[in-house]
Design a protein that fits this description.
Largest sheet: 6 strands, antiparallel
Structural class: mainly beta
Shape: globular
Strand order of the largest sheet: 1-2-3-10-5-8
């Protein structure tokens, strides 16, 4: 990692990605950690999935998110931090009625930065699942398909 500043309105390498209706703007990336700013409009979500090789977290800047760990659900509000350990299935949902702003991070970085490049603008769920599996993120089947 080079010393320096990533401006508030900029992403690393000029990137800003549309992933599942969210805007992800990378802020820090090296082999040890990857951190991005996220804007999650109301009604959007990331279906339940597992990071087998990474710990993930969310720090809430504004708004509210629900994070489901199987049957357990936590509600994260401004200033809260959600911890999602590697190997534990989690889904992220904005059912709040307003946009949520937060900072996500994973450690180690593994292939997540490359996954977001590949997923930018992808709208087909099957393609999202296929690309994610190639980058060490495993989506769970929908409940009615289990």
């Amino acid at each position: 990692m080079e010393p320096g500043l990533t401006k508030a309105d900029a992403g690393l390498n000029g990137h800003a990605w549309n992933v599942v209706g969210h805007t992800y703007v990378p802020k820090l990336w090296n082999e040890d950690a990857f951190i991005w700013h996220a804007t999650l409009p109301d009604g959007t979500f990331v279906p339940p999935h597992i990071h087998p090789t990474q710990d993930e977290w969310i720090y809430m800047l504004d708004g509210e998110l629900e994070v489901e760990f199987g049957e357990e659900k936590v509600v994260a509000r401004t200033g809260d931090t959600v911890k999602m350990p590697r190997g534990i299935a989690h889904g992220i949902f904005n059912r709040s009625g307003t946009t949520a702003l937060c900072v996500f991070g994973v450690a180690p970085s593994r292939r997540l930065y490359d996954l977001f490049i590949a997923l930018d603008g992808v709208t087909d769920p099957a393609e999202l699942v296929r690309l994610s599996a190639l980058h060490e993120v495993d989506f769970l089947p929908p409940p009615d398909a289990a």
